[in-house]
Amino acid sequence: MGHTMSRRRFMTAAAGAAVATRPAGVASALAPTVFAAGAEKPALLGGRPLRGAPFPAWPVIDDREQSALLEVLRGRKWYRGDGQTVSRFEEAYARLTGARHCIATANGTSALYASLAGLDVAPGDEVILPPYTFVATLNVVFLQYALPVFVDSDPETLQMDARRLEGALSERTAVIVPVHLGGNACDLDAILDVSRRRKVPVLEDACQAHLGEWRGRKLGTLGAAGCFSFQASKNLNSGEGGAILTNDDALAERCWAFHDNARARRGRPAPPLGGRGANLRLTEFQAGLLLAQMTRLEEQSRVREENARYLTQQLREVPGILPARMHEGCTRNAYHLYMFRYQPEPFAGLPRARFLEALRAEGVPCSPGYTPLNRQPFVAATLASRAYQRLYPKQVLAGWEERSRCPANDGLCEEAVWLTQTMLLGPRQDMDDIAAAVRKIQASAAELARA
Known about the structure:
Aspartate Aminotransferase, domain 1; Aspartate Aminotransferase, domain 2; 2 domains; three-stranded parallel beta sheet; globular
């Protein structure tokens, strides 16, 4: 999106980042390192980088992955119709999350696409979504020729602002798609309350929220369905891959049929889909990788949570750094991303772009995150296309821009800073380094702003 570093490029860069050596004597940040102005020259201005060691590489692999791939290879049943590995993964992931059904798909986009089809989203319908999300959340709406309607963000949590949800609904609204961005949870109490009262289903985009929880229940299992991604940057990774979770028997069959060329599971009648379907199946090789990666998932998640909690304690003490808040109902944050907002005033007016540049120079990979999805040029171009002009009344399209204004999200996109999940997998000292780098930049902010 524009010149903003994409999430996937950022995750790759962060996993392998390595810069010059870290100076001796940098103290633990629970006894915070204090950088007097001028005492430590910032790396961006020629000083020694605070950190030299790379953050943990991703993905983590060993003989488990090799054995899983060789088992599929030697079994000569590489397609899910012949093999059993995808089915084994579906059973294991459903058991792990507490869902009744799991349908594995080619990727997270496919999971969202099949779910919207299973929920009978059609041309003329409206789909509610946030403007602060990966583009796939929007693309699948356009694939169904539905009309996206954006609900503004809550800057404190970086999630959809559920307080604004009901006002965005209309008689055309078919589905609400909250996104549990970065592994944090949307306010599901409020969202599900609107869903029940207005009789509009919720499709949870949990593509970044593996093992995240809302009041003790796994994210992706509270709405009509939930979708996950296993793309290479994700906390559970098979290069590409996805899954749909649902407790609705009929919806599971409709999603299954759509993902397998409108065909029913063996021995079951085909659900009515009007002949629509696609090949969105996961391969046996990817399922084998996922089963191997799942053996580490809980422990890795625990380490991320502990490091994130420790890092938050430190960053909250830095004026101008505002770690993302969690809703009271979020009992587990998956931390696919560690996100905070940067405010330049306590940093001598240092622009965010310069802050990010200085942080990277100190050996801490970081990203500015997403740009406003609702304002991307391709959105307006799609709504101006022949298909949309035919499908929607002129007054509906004419009023779309005003309905989808998201001023809070525009501000959020100017403040957000992301750290990758891989950066939370190392020792506690890594968190000390991140916090110390932020303090070091603040101590020299005036000099950096002038340079």
